[in-house]
Design goal:
two-stranded antiparallel sheet, 2 domains, 8 strands, Beta-Lactamase, Arc Repressor Mutant, subunit A, 6-stranded antiparallel sheet, 10 helices, elongated, alpha+beta
Length: 261
């Protein structure tokens, strides 16, 4: 029996939410954990206030909040994911001759934890420790495509998030509806893209790396130059050339962190 029941119950609730594929009702949590419903509501209220849980009023459900994702990405920054991913990205860059990055979800941002630059390729604004709005990047869209729809909607419930693109001088989706379309497409095709939305003349392909529960642990993205004269057929051909090795690398990293390949 724990000497600090409230702390024990709080951690159990967070663990339970982390193992769900999407937000769940408070009653489900109380029943599964054999906790008083009143206690569960009290703890969820505090977790929501601190950003560790998200409340979806229309559905009366709770899911993990941005602060919980920040804890996850903090773990990733403290070596394990970085050390596992760095040699795989180095090998990928050697094979394809383009720059590659490994990023994790940090609230509604992506945080770059590994950056492998290819020789004689354009300089990039991404680097280790850099954060960018997730909905504007290929890696971010890949990560968001693996979230349950309710979790995605909760993360982007505030329209002000989409004003970042204007403040940063970037292109990209201007509403949740546009983001949802991009994320749905990424989920269906197994990869995401962005073209000249972060840096003019550069495009990126992103593939999600999932953990053993199917949650997005990270994303691998490759950035490459896009010739001005390139046709849509040329661009799609380049995607098809790069994609197999990116997917293979993502699957191997997923396997190394005991995820689902």
């Amino acid at each position: 029996m724990s000497k600090v029941p409230a702390a024990d119950s709080t951690l159990r609730i967070l663990e339970f939410l982390a193992h769900q594929r999407g937000p769940v009702p408070a009653q489900t949590i109380a029943t599964a954990l054999s906790l008083p419903r009143s206690s569960v509501y009290q703890i969820l209220t505090v977790l929501t206030e601190r950003g560790f849980a998200l409340h979806i009023p229309e559905e009366r459900r709770y899911g993990l909040g941005p602060a919980a994702f920040e804890l996850s990405s903090s773990y990733s920054r403290q070596q394990p994911l970085t050390r596992l991913g760095a040699p795989l990205l180095a090998k990928l860059v050697d094979h394809i001759g383009e720059s590659a990055h490994l990023a994790v979800l940090h609230g509604t941002d992506v945080l770059y934890v590994v950056e492998e630059r290819a020789a004689r390729r354009p300089s990039l604004i991404t680097d280790v420790g850099v954060r960018l709005p997730a909905h504007l990047t290929a890696s971010g869209r890949a990560l968001l495509s693996a979230l349950p729809p309710a979790q995605l909607r909760a993360l982007y419930s505030d329209p002000v998030v989409f004003t970042q693109r204007e403040e940063l001088g970037l292109a990209g989706p201007q509403s949740y509806r546009e983001l949802k379309a991009l994320v749905t497409q990424a989920a269906q095709q197994g990869y995401s893209t962005e073209r000249s939305e972060i840096t003019d003349g550069l495009a990126s392909i992103g593939v999600v790396v999932k953990d053993h529960l199917g949650w997005p642990a990270a994303a691998i993205a490759v950035t490459y130059p896009v010739p001005v004269s390139a046709t849509e057929e040329d661009l799609q051909m380049r995607v098809e050339q790069l994609l197999p090795e990116i997917k293979t690398t993502a699957q191997e990293l997923s396997r190394r962190i005991h995820g689902a390949s």
